[in-house]
């Protein structure tokens, strides 16, 4: 079964809904009649997407918030407590930097963990409780191929995405007892504004289209616990082999061939 407004509406909460995959999901939901609460740090892109959604005939609320803030849940509750939230799509999660772990400021390491591990867990707990009581709903958590094997240069991000996948798998099992869907989406190289800001640009047809990822997530919401974007399926299958040492070495060689030689 694909996304169903009667099961996954009338409101969605989308942390990271102001651009890229999150905004594409909000647009697709609006076309199905589902309203959205969009959360991100920058106000202007939030307001732009919200206006677009209203133009499609649904309601939209915005919350300008850094999801790593200690009072994140209180701030989210302030704009959602009066709503029936049938869908959580936790999209925000990209790593804020790269490079050897021991060269990072600990504050940056903690931010990656707060944005991914703490953020996904806290909001899944909060909205999951409400969905379980209603006996319907859906939770979509964004992952990465980096979460399937040790990934030097982004090891905290990679560990956080591994957490997300294993957490999603267990949550999927627990929540199906309450008729709530859970899906972890293994995202590949995707042509998002966040990647462009990092200087990563793609030739025509090279990076995945964020709207394709949005459609994949919504089409597979009831086919959890994990869906992999088609371009990454082969890599996912290789990286889930049991030779953890061999595949980390192989992954490191691939990453180092694409980054500056900080390990020389
Ligand atoms: N793009 C790829 O190639 C790729 C590859 C693998 C996995 N993924 C996964 O796909 C998801 C989306 O990735 P993306 O490339 O679009 O980048 P992203 O930076 O994770 O997502 C962009 C959205 O998240 C918001 N955001 C980022 N950090 C935030 C924070 N601390 N607090 C609140 N909002 C925040 C951004 O708005 P503001 O900047 O205004 O806050 C924007 O709405 C992530 O989970 C990422 O790990 C992406």
Would you give an account of this structure?
The chain is an alpha/beta fold and 264 residues long. It has a single domain, classed as Rossmann fold. Helix content is 47%, strand content 15%. The chain has 10 helices and 7 strands. The mean pLDDT is 94. The site of NADP nicotinamide-adenine-dinucleotide phosphate has 27 residues, from helix 2, strand 5 and helix 7.
- Ligands (ions, cofactors included): NADP nicotinamide-adenine-dinucleotide phosphate
What's the CATH H-level homologous superfamily?
NAD(P)-binding Rossmann-like Domain
**Percentage of residues in DSSP E strands:** 5-15%
Characterize the overall form. Answer: globular
**CATH C-level label:** Alpha Beta
Number of distinct beta strands: 7
Shape-level CATH architecture? 3-Layer(aba) Sandwich
Question: Helicity range of the residues?
Answer: 40-55%
Topology:
Blueprint: H1 5-8, E1 11-15, H2 20-31, E2 35-40, H3 43-55, E3 60-64, H4 72-80, E4 85-90, H5 106-134, E5 138-144, H6 155-176, E6 181-187, H7 193-197, H8 210-219, E7 226-228, H9 233-239, H10 244-256
Parallel strand pairs: 1-2, 1-4, 2-3, 4-5, 5-6, 6-7
Features:
single chain; alpha/beta; 15% strand; seven-stranded parallel β-sheet; binds NADP nicotinamide-adenine-dinucleotide phosphate; Rossmann fold
Task: Compose a concise summary of this entry.
This protein is an alpha/beta fold.
């Amino acid at each position: 079964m694909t996304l169903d407004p009667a099961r996954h509406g009338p409101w969605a909460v989308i942390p990271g809904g102001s651009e890229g995959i999150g905004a594409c999901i909000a647009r697709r939901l609006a076309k199905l009649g589902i309203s959205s609460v969009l959360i991100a740090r920058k106000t202007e892109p939030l307001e732009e997407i919200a206006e677009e959604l209203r133009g499609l005939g649904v309601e939209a609320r915005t919350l300008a918030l850094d999801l790593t803030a200690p009072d994140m849940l209180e701030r989210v509750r302030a704009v959602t407590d009066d709503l029936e939230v049938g869908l959580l799509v936790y999209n925000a999660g990209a790593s804020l930097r790269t490079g050897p772990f021991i060269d990072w400021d600990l504050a940056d390491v903690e931010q990656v963990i707060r944005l991914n591990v703490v953020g996904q867990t806290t909001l899944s707990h909060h909205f999951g409780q409400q969905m379980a009581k209603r006996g319907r709903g859906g939770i979509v958590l964004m992952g990465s191929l980096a979460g399937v094997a040790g990934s030097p240069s982004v090891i905290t991000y990679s560990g956080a995405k591994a957490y997300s996948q294993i957490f999603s798998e267990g949550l999927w099992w627990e929540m199906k007892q309450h008729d709530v869907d859970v899906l972890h989406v293994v995202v590949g190289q995707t042509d998002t504004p966040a990647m462009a800001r990092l200087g990563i640009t793609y030739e025509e047809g090279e990076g995945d289209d964020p709207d394709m990822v949005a459609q994949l997530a919504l089409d597979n919401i009831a086919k959890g616990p994990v869906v992999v974007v088609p371009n990454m399926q082969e890599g996912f299958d290789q990286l889930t082999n049991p030779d953890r040492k061999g595949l980390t070495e192989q992954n490191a060689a691939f990453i180092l061939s694409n980054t500056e030689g900080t390990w020389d």
